[in-house]
Amino acid sequence: MFAKLPLTAIRAFESAARLGGFKAASAELFVTPAAVSQQIKTLENLLGSMLFVRTPHGVKLTDNGERLYSKVHLSFLDISSSMSTLKPPADTNTLRVSTTPAFASLWLIPRLAKFYSEHPDIHVSIETSNEVVDLFRDSSVDLAIRCGFRDFPELYSQALMREQFGVFSHAHWKEEEVETSLKLINIRWATSSPASISWAAWCAAANHEGWLAKAVLREYNDEHFALQAAIAGHGLTLASTVLAADYVANGLLIPYRPDIKIPGAQFSAVCVPGRERSGAVKKFLAWMVKVIASCHADYQVARDDASQTVTKRRASLAI
Question: The pTM is what?
């Protein structure tokens, strides 16, 4: 039945499509770029359809190429997964998770000890980047944790939590600083979003429009740095309630006007369809859902305690 399948050509096509070029595919397959090109030409002749468009900047998949790649790549993943089940368990116990540096450092890594205590046989390898990883092209990544405003219909997606953006101060910040030396910590977002997450939006919601005219702005390009600056007393920061949660729970940061929040994005765990059924991914997803439910409860308590602190502080200033 499968004797006439051009497996060598199909493998060359999958590699070139996943890696984005013939040269990269040749390096992966240990053949020359000319050999990869010839294999793909053979496949195109067999199908009677162009799979790549040759451009001055390289090659790009055609619509037919995209359709074929999605099917071929998933088939190769299934074959690889089937073969992996025959290997010793040690070969399949590394879970590669891709996420942003801020989420990894501020939320995920501090909680990994709990995962290891429940699943000591699974090793989690965390890869961080602010760029979105193409899970179909990079098959080494098992799971990605993304924060965004759009769905990923081509991927399996597990909704985790929705963030909001609020203002936070260090533990010893005094409200009279608003009048004397107001400093605001601003984050230069690496990616655009349909939501207006800015000091201007928060000030408008809080009826503090005059703040921007008199405040000194401190800017950072990463939420981790902005939160550290707030803890160090450099000013108020507008940050994700999810990423600030541990600092609030530990008393290092206190929410200012916790009643005013800007809606943020949705955190989701995504993977290539089918991988969610593998042992390590399935266990990691179940653990995240459980921990997130617990963290929401902890943060609510910490936030309520902080609100009482702010209320008492305001009362003392009014006396």
Answer: 0.65
